[in-house]
Design brief:
The protein is an alpha+beta fold and 779 residues long. The protein is 32% helix and 19% strand. The chain is built from 22 helices and 27 strands. α13 packs antiparallel against α20. The longest helix is centred in the N-terminal third of the chain and has 17 residues. The chain starts with a helix and ends with a strand.
Length: 779
C-alpha cells in the first residue's frame, strides 16, 4: 500500500509538473473579451476584458507594507509552508464543521495563484488535487517573493481593478510602490469579497475589514499599536476619487448594475475575460431622454439631483436608468444604491393590502390628528401643514395624500401585511413592519419603486427573470464567445394582485394625477396613474407613475446628505408634485411619442356592506355590540372577519397586581373600576403576608365592577415579631412566647445588650421552633 501510494503521488506530481510554466500571470491563457450590449444587441456599452485593469509589476515595484498586509490576512504561514498548508486546511475544516454560518477557506496564496492562472474554477475534488499538486511544484521552482508578486498581479480588487498596480491607481491615484499602511490594509482586505468590502458602496464593511487586517498585522508583529491607531483613523477613498478603468459608455451606472449581477451569477473570472456577450434591456433612446428631461427641469447647477428608472410593465425590462450626473466623479448609483424614504409614494402598497383583504375604497375614516397605540407608546400622526379634510373615503384620501387616514388604514390592515404586499409587488429589501411603514418611513430605491409600480401597470403581475430571479430584468440573454446561447433570462410572471384588485387600485391612482397632488404629471392624450411622495422635512421628493406601456420612478434630492429643499422650487419647497412630477411628464411624453395611447383594463366587484370591526387578541374581529375603539369598514361581498369578538359590557382591562401590597392592589383595581375579593392560602415559613401572591383572572378583560380574586398568604403560626431595639432579655421573652427559638449570631457596634438586627425579618410567616438569629450591640 505504501509503495502504491508513493507511486501514485510521484505520477501525479510528474503529470502536473509540465503545467507549472503556464502559471506565470504573464501567460494567463484562454482570456477572451466579452461585451455588454444595449437592447439593440449591437451597441457596445462596455468591454469585459479580463486583463483590462492589470499592469504587471516586479517585486521591487510593490511596497513592502502591501506585501506584508496581504500575507497577514490571506496566508500568514506563507513563508513556512511548501504551497499547501495542512495546518490551515485543518483549521478551515474545523471552523466549517463547528460554525456553519462562517465558511472558511484553507487555500494558500500559492494555491490561489494556481487557481487564478492554471486551473478551472470547477468545484471538484480533482481540481483541488491538481491545484494542490501544482502549488507544491510551483514552490519547488519559484522563490516565495516571485509567487507573492504573481499573486498580487492577478487578484481582483473590485471596481474593475485587476492587480495591485491598477488597484492603487483606481482607489488612491498612486502606484503600488507608494502605498501607505492604511491604503495597503484596505486593499488587502478587498479580494476576499470585492463586492462586500467595496469602500465606495459599502464603506462601513470596508472600514471594518481594514481594521481586521490591521489587527492581524499587529498580532504578527508587523506593525505597532500606534501604527494601528493612526491607520484606522485614515479616511476611506471617496466615491469621487475612485478612477474606474475601461469603457464608460452611454449608460455607466446601468452597466455597473449589470456587472454586479453577472459577477454574482458567474464569478469574476468568467465575467472578465470569459468571452461573455451580454444583451441588456437598456433602450439608449430612452436613456438619452431621461438625461435630457432631468437637465431640462433641474437647471440650477448647485441645486438638487435626480434619479430616474423606467420599466416596461409587460416584460419587466429596465429601459432607462439615470443614476447620477457624473460617473467619473461619483460611481454611487442613486437609482439602485440610493436608499431614501419614499414618503406618500408608498401609500399604494397600503391601499393594495386593503383591497386584498376585501376592504372597499368606500370605507371612510376621520381626517384629524390621531395617536395610534403601538404596544408601548403612542404614535402621533398629523397631516402636512396640519390641513385636515374631515371624514373621507380611501379614494379621496389617496388623491390628497392624507397621512391621518392612511395611518389608520395601516393599523387596520396590519403593518406586517403591508410589508408582505410590497415584497410581492417588487420591493426586495427588508422592510420593518412598524406602523410608520404606511407613510413611507422605510428607505427604498427608485429601481424598486419603478418595478413595484410596473406590477400595477401589468394587471397585478410582477415580472421576474428566469435566470436572475426576483429582481428587475436588466439582462435579456447571454451568449459565449462562439455566439452560443448560455442563458435566456425570460420573463416569469407572478401574481401579486388579482385583475379586479389591480384595476380598482389603478383607477384610484388615476385620480391622483387627474385632480390630486400629481396634476403636474398629467399627459395631454394619455391616462396616467401614479403617486407623489414627500418626506416630512422636504429632504426627499418622489413621483412614481405609469401608463399601460411604461412605469417610471423619479426621485429628487441631495445625494450626499439629507438636506431640506425648502426654497428650491421657484422659492417654494420641493414636494413630489413639483420637480419629480414635471420630470416624469417631460420624460414620459417624449418616451411614448409615436406609440398608440392605451387604456387600463376594466374591473368589476360585487356589492359592498359596512361591518363594525375591532382589533382584539391580535386579529380583526366583528364587534359584538360591547367593543370599544371600533372601526366601521366597508367590505366587498364575501370578505371581512368571520369571528365575533367576546367584548364585555362596560369593558375594562384587568390589571396585573401580583406582587403589590394589598392596599396598592385594591387601589389599582378600584381605578378600573373592579371589585377585589380576598382569599387566603397557608403561608410558607418566612413568606411575606402583605403581598398579593396570585390573582384570578390574571389578565384579559372584564365588565366594570366585576370581581377580581386576590390570593394572600395566611400565617398558620403567626408572624415573626419586630424585636430590633429591645434588650436581649426582652427579645428572648417575646420570641419564646411565640414558640420561636432565639439565638445570638454575633456582636457588633451598638448599644450594649440591645438587639440591632434580626433574621428572619419581622412580619414574615413564622413556623414552630423557628430559629431567629440576633445581632447584639457590645457598646
Amino acid at each position: 500500500m505504501l509503495l502504491g501510494t508513493a507511486s501514485f503521488g510521484y505520477g501525479l506530481i510528474t503529470a502536473v509538473a509540465s503545467q507549472v510554466p503556464n502559471c506565470d500571470p504573464r501567460r494567463v491563457p484562454h482570456e477572451v473579451d466579452g461585451h455588454i450590449y444595449a437592447s439593440d444587441d449591437h451597441t457596445i456599452l462596455a468591454t469585459l476584458r479580463g486583463s483590462e485593469s492589470r499592469i504587471l509589476l516586479g517585486t521591487d515595484q510593490i511596497a513592502p507594507i502591501m506585501q506584508q498586509a496581504i500575507v497577514s490576512i490571506e496566508d500568514k504561514r506563507f513563508y513556512e509552508h511548501n504551497g499547501v498548508d495542512l495546518r490551515g486546511i485543518g483549521r478551515a475544516v474545523w471552523a466549517d464543521v463547528t460554525n456553519k454560518s462562517v465558511v472558511q477557506g484553507g487555500s494558500t496564496i500559492t494555491q490561489q495563484l494556481v487557481k487564478n492562472s492554471c486551473v478551472t474554477t470547477a468545484r471538484t475534488i480533482s481540481r483541488k488535487l491538481k491545484e494542490a499538486a501544482l502549488a507544491w511544484q510551483l514552490e519547488q521552482r519559484w522563490p516565495k517573493l516571485r509567487i507573492l508578486t504573481g499573486y498580487l498581479n492577478t487578484i481582483y480588487f473590485g471596481n474593475g481593478a485587476y492587480g495591485v498596480q491598477r488597484a492603487a491607481q483606481t482607489y488612491f491615484n498612486t502606484t503600488a510602490s507608494r502605498l501607505t499602511l492604511p491604503q495597503a490594509a484596505l486593499l488587502a482586505g478587498i479580494p476576499a469579497d470585492p463586492s462586500r468590502f467595496d469602500p465606495v458602496t459599502n464603506p462601513k464593511a470596508a472600514r471594518s475589514r481594514r481594521l481586521e487586517v490591521l489587527n492581524t498585522m499587529l498580532a504578527q508583529g508587523e506593525i505597532s499599536a500606534r501604527d494601528l491607531r493612526r491607520a484606522s483613523r485614515a479616511p476611506l477613498p471617496r466615491a469621487s476619487d475612485v478612477r474606474l478603468p475601461g469603457i464608460e459608455g452611454p449608460a455607466p451606472y446601468f452597466v455597473n448594475y449589470v456587472k454586479q449581477q453577472l459577477i454574482e451569477k458567474y464569478g469574476t473570472r468568467k465575467v472578465f475575460g470569459g468571452g461573455l456577450n451580454v444583451q441588456t434591456t437598456i433602450d439608449l433612446r430612452l436613456q438619452k431622454l431621461a438625461r435630457a428631461a432631468i437637465q431640462n427641469v433641474l437647471k440650477e447647477p448647485n441645486g438638487p439631483s435626480a434619479a430616474l428608472v423606467a420599466v416596461r410593465p409587460s416584460t419587466g425590462e429596465v429601459l432607462a436608468m439615470y443614476g447620477g450626473d457624473n460617473f467619473r466623479q461619483s460611481q454611487f448609483n442613486l437609482a439602485v444604491q440610493g436608499e431614501r424614504q419614499p414618503g406618500s409614494s408608498f401609500k399604494p402598497f397600503v391601499l393594495a393590502t386593503a383591497l386584498k383583504q376585501g376592504i372597499s375604497p368606500a370605507t371612510t375614516f376621520p381626517s384629524k390628528p390621531v395617536n395610534i397605540f403601538i404596544g408601548d407608546k403612542y404614535w402621533p400622526v398629523h397631516n402636512f401643514e396640519n390641513d385636515y379634510i374631515g371624514s373621507a373615503d380611501l379614494t379621496t384620501a389617496t388623491a390628497v395624500s392624507d397621512n391621518s387616514i392612511f395611518a389608520q388604514l395601516t393599523r387596520l390592515v396590519g403593518p406586517a401585511n403591508v410589508a408582505k404586499t410590497a415584497h410581492q409587488l417588487g420591493i426586495t429589501r427588508h422592510l420593518n413592519p412598524y406602523f410608520a411603514i404606511g407613510l413611507g418611513a422605510d428607505a427604498v430605491s427608485p429601481l424598486e419603486m419603478a418595478r413595484a409600480f410596473s406590477t400595477f401597470a401589468n394587471r397585478g403581475r410582477r415580472v421576474d427573470g428566469s435566470v436572475f430571479g426576483n429582481r428587475p430584468r436588466a439582462v435579456a440573454r447571454i451568449r459565449n464567445a462562439r455566439d452560443k446561447l448560455i442563458d435566456d433570462n425570460r420573463p416569469v410572471y407572478r401574481a401579486a394582485l388579482s385583475r379586479d384588485q389591480d384595476g380598482l387600485l389603478t383607477s384610484i391612482l388615476e385620480g391622483v394625477v387627474r385632480s390630486g397632488t400629481g396634476k403636474r404629471a398629467a399627459l395631454p392624450d394619455r391616462i396616467v396613474a401614479g403617486k407623489t411622495g414627500t418626506t416630512e422635512n422636504f429632504g426627499d421628493a418622489w413621483f412614481v407613475g405609469y401608463t399601460p406601456q411604461l412605469a417610471t420612478a423619479v426621485w429628487v434630492g441631495y445625494p450626499n446628505k439629507l438636506k431640506p429643499m425648502l426654497t428650491e422650487y421657484h422659492g417654494d419647497a420641493v414636494a413630489g408634485g413639483t420637480f419629480p412630477a414635471e420630470i416624469w411628464r417631460v420624460f414620459s411624453q417624449q418616451a411614448l411619442a409615436g406609440t398608440t395611447p392605451e387604456s387600463f383594463p376594466g374591473y368589476s366587484y360585487d356589492y359592498a356592506s359596512a361591518k363594525r370591526v375591532v382589533w382584539r387578541d391580535g386579529r380583526l374581529q366583528l364587534d359584538n355590540g360591547f367593543c370599544r375603539e371600533t372601526e366601521l369598514v366597508t367590505y366587498f361581498s364575501g370578505h371581512g372577519p368571520s369571528r365575533t369578538a367576546n367584548c364585555k359590557q362596560n369593558e375594562v382591562d384587568v390589571p396585573r397586581v401580583i406582587g403589590l401590597s394589598v392596599a396598592r392592589a385594591k387601589l389599582r383595581l378600584a381605578g378600573q373600576p373592579l371589585t377585589p375579593n380576598i382569599v387566603y392560602k397557608p403561608a410558607r415559613p418566612k413568606q411575606r403576608v402583605d403581598l398579593v401572591l396570585d390573582q384570578f383572572p390574571r389578565r384579559g378583560r372584564a365588565s366594570s365592577f366585576d370581581t377580581v380574586t386576590l390570593v394572600l398568604a395566611k400565617p398558620l403560626h403567626g408572624v415573626v415579631p419586630d424585636i430590633v431595639g429591645m434588650s436581649v432579655r426582652q427579645a428572648r421573652a417575646r420570641l419564646r412566647a411565640r414558640g420561636l427559638v432565639p439565638a445570638i449570631e454575633r456582636f457588633a457596634d451598638g448599644s450594649a445588650g440591645q438587639v440591632i438586627a434580626q433574621a428572619p425579618a419581622p412580619h414574615l410567616a413564622a413556623a414552630p421552633r423557628m430559629t431567629v438569629r440576633l445581632v447584639v450591640g457590645h457598646g
